[in-house]
Amino acid sequence: MIEFPNHSRSYDRTRRAVRFWGHDSAIEASFFIEEEALKRIQPDTGYDESSLLHAFDSNRDLICAAAAKVYVRGTRGSYDLVAGNF
After folding, report:
1. Tens of pLDDT, residues 62-79
2. With 67 labelled, which of 35, 40, 46, 59 sits at a CA distance of 20 to 30 A?
């Protein structure tokens, strides 16, 4: 089962997404939630880094629940969450 004990996150300008990490025992997986997905969750979010990180922090539980649904153990190193996941 994937868990999200690490509250670290960062904005990746190249991918236009917020990156965060989950852990399944000793396996670490990277997750990216795209800007448009954050805008779907919180429509008043701006496109600047600070606003996107704030939207992520304000909706962490919802985002982590969606990430757990797309996670499949050992199949990939990273997972993308898009607007359709919300």
Report:
1. 999 999 999 988 678 899
2. 46
Tokens of 40: 């779907």
Of 82, 60, 69, 79, which Cα lies nearest the Cα of 7? 60
Is pTM beyond 0.90 here?
yes
Those residues whose C-beta lies under 8 Å from the C-beta of residue 22, and which sit 6 or more positions away, are 2, 3, 4, 28, 29, 31, 64, 67, 68, 71
Residue 3 is assigned to a structural domain of this protein? no
The rounded distance, in Å, linking the Cα atoms of 69 and 5 is: 17
Q: Are 30 and 21 in contact (CB under 8 A)?
A: yes
Both structure tokens of 50? 């600070």
- Say which amino acid occupies 31: F
User: What is the residue type of 28?
Assistant: E
- Do the domain assignments include residue 20? yes
The order of strands in the sheet holding 27-34 is 9-12, 17-24, 27-34, 78-81
